[in-house]
Specification:
Layout lengths: L2 H5 L2 E5 L6 H14 L3 E4 L13 E6 L8 H13 L4 E5 L2 H5 L3 H14 L4 E5 L7 H14 L3 E3 L12 H11 L4 E5 L5 H10 L3 E4 L2 H6 L3
Parallel strand pairs: 1-2, 1-8, 2-3, 3-4, 4-5, 5-6, 6-7, 7-8
Helix pairs in contact: 3-5, 5-6, 6-7
Keywords: Cytoplasm, Lyase, Schiff base
Family: Belongs to the DeoC/FbaB aldolase family. DeoC type 1 subfamily.
Pathway: Carbohydrate degradation; 2-deoxy-D-ribose 1-phosphate degradation; D-glyceraldehyde 3-phosphate and acetaldehyde from 2-deoxy-alpha-D-ribose 1-phosphate: step 2/2
Length: 215
């Protein structure tokens, strides 16, 4: 894989709560320079002017996922109205741990119905879940009409993405849903390992470092 090909996997991300408008403007400029797929920013940073070659992604129910479904759905709907092409929503992790997968599915479906034409990615927080729970959440996301399942917010103390989690997700939905690896991916080797395991998108703030490792 060459640098251009790898760049198109990347959502260049800035979700730190202290990020300023100037930081976001710098993110967009860097993303355009690197040739990545999209920028991912907090909802309050929308609307966002970007070059034609960049998609805009944002988050909903972030980072805890413990919001009411109606709030996640309203947040996602407003974000799309303000120009977001893609929304990465966080599931209710506690419900997943309790194995209430009907609730997880309904939570995802509420957001899906609010943004029927936008790309919906579902953040599972895989480091906090067992393999069986990850699989069940992937199936719930598929039933609810999501486009992607995603490993992590990058904010959970249990950790971020792992090759093993991507392999579990790929076994559950690979080929039918996209799989986004996000959380702690800071170098080329890690990014490529995630792609080999089945990831079809990479969320990263260290995009330049990742891309410097390939030609």
């Amino acid at each position: 894989m060459n640098r251009t090909e790898l760049a198109r996997y990347i959502d260049h991300t800035l979700l730190k709560p202290e990020s300023t408008d100037a930081d976001v403007a710098a993110l967009v400029e860097e993303a355009h320079d690197l040739g990545v797929y999209s920028v991912c920013v907090s909802p309050s940073k929308l609307p966002l002017e970007v070059p034609a070659d960049l998609k805009v992604a944002t988050v909903a129910g972030f980072p805890s996922g413990a919001h009411h479904s109606e709030i996640k759905a309203a947040e996602a709907k407003l974000s799309v109205a303000q120009g977001a092409d893609e929304v990465d929503m966080v599931i209710n992790v506690a419900r997943a741990v309790a194995e209430d997968f009907d609730y997880v599915e309904k939570d995802i479906r509420a957001v899906r119905e609010a943004i029927p034409k936008a790309v919906l990615k579902v953040i599972l927080e895989t480091a906090a879940l067992s393999d069986e729970q990850i699989t069940a959440c992937c199936h719930a996301a598929e039933r609810a009409g999501a486009d992607f399942v995603k490993t992590s917010t990058g904010f959970h103390p249990a950790g971020g993405a792992s090759v093993h989690a991507i392999e579990v997700m790929h076994a559950a939905v690979g080929g039918r849903l996209g799989i986004k690896a996000s959380g702690g991916i800071r170098d080329t080797e890690t990014a490529l390992a995630m792609i080999v395991a089945g990831a079809t998108r990479i969320g990263a703030s260290s995009s330049r470092t990742i891309l410097e490792g390939v030609n």
